[in-house]
Design a protein that fits this description.
By secondary structure, the protein is mostly beta strands. Helices cover 8% and strands 39% of the residues. The protein has two domains: 123 residues, Immunoglobulin-like, CATH 2.60.40; 87 residues, glycosyl hydrolase (family 31) (Immunoglobulin-like, Sandwich).
């Protein structure tokens, strides 16, 4: 092989390695089927580095996330007795802080035929569990398998640091507050019950919930404007609306019962 070509190939490989993000744990082959023999590798120098510079035995603690799992905390077929010298979960050190473990997914987790595995969940520990390896955010490690694609989390549209009141309108017994983050709909159900709904847009959206079966009553309400905002009242309850930043507080016969953060 031409010397210059070898140097070019080495430079390309080095560039690829430099650009690859450091991983805490991975499977080989990647994205295996449940019947594949896989090799799990854990890098104790990455993630939260809970086991960095640890020279003793590394144990894995693991479970399967299946279609029936409620969320990432609902591990199925958990393997590993925490804090014990469990021989079934001892990893093999291959040097440079790397540890490996070989298994067949279906056999190791004893998955039933009807169970569809989507991810494998891991944390790593020393013998007594005083040192624990997780992600850089100190979270459990999840590795997708069996063709599963991890959903991309989107930022919630309803999150905001503060709101301000743009306009308001009293409609019969109800009060609508238009803000820079949508509509607030305040509905008295009785003298002692007020429902407050928040909508992303400028119009109320029909509620499909069957949890509330009571119908709002047509009752006398009063709206007063103050230096700091508004006071919306029944005979028993008062909603205080601070204009900017916008937040609501609630009084029952003059006593504060709830204040928004």
């Amino acid at each position: 092989m031409n010397k210059n070509f070898r140097l070019l190939l080495f430079a390309i490989c080095l560039l690829v390695l430099i650009k690859l993000p450091a991983q805490v744990a991975w499977l080989n082959p990647a994205d295996p089927s449940p019947t594949d023999t896989v090799v799990l590798t854990y890098n104790q120098n990455e993630g939260n580095k809970g086991l960095k510079d640890w020279n003793g035995t590394v144990y894995l603690h693991t479970g399967a996330i299946t279609k029936k799992s409620i969320d990432g905390g609902d591990w199925k077929h958990v393997t590993g007795n925490w804090g014990e010298d469990d021989q079934k979960v001892i990893m093999t050190s291959i040097g440079n802080g790397l540890h490996q473990f070989t298994f067949v997914i279906n056999d190791y987790y004893q998955l039933r035929e009807e169970e569809v595995v989507q991810q494998l969940a891991f944390v790593f520990r020393n013998l007594d569990g005083s040192k624990v390896g997780k992600t850089a955010k100190n979270e459990d490690i999840f590795i997708p398998v069996n063709g599963y694609i991890t959903p991309v989390k989107k930022a919630a549209k309803y999150l905001y640091s503060s709101r301000k009141l743009i306009s308001y309108q009293k409609n019969g017994s109800n009060l609508d507050l238009r803000t820079d983050h949508g509509l607030i709909h305040i509905i008295p159900f009785s003298e002692k019950i007020i429902q407050v709904k928040h909508f992303e847009g400028d119009e109320p959206v029909k509620d499909s919930s069957d949890a509330v079966i009571m119908e709002p009553q047509l009752i006398l309400t009063r709206l007063d404007e103050t230096d700091y905002g508004l006071r919306f009242s029944t005979d028993s309850l008062t909603v205080i609306i601070n204009k900017e930043p916008l937040f609501l507080s609630y009084l029952y016969h003059g006593d504060s019962i709830l204040i928004e953060d």
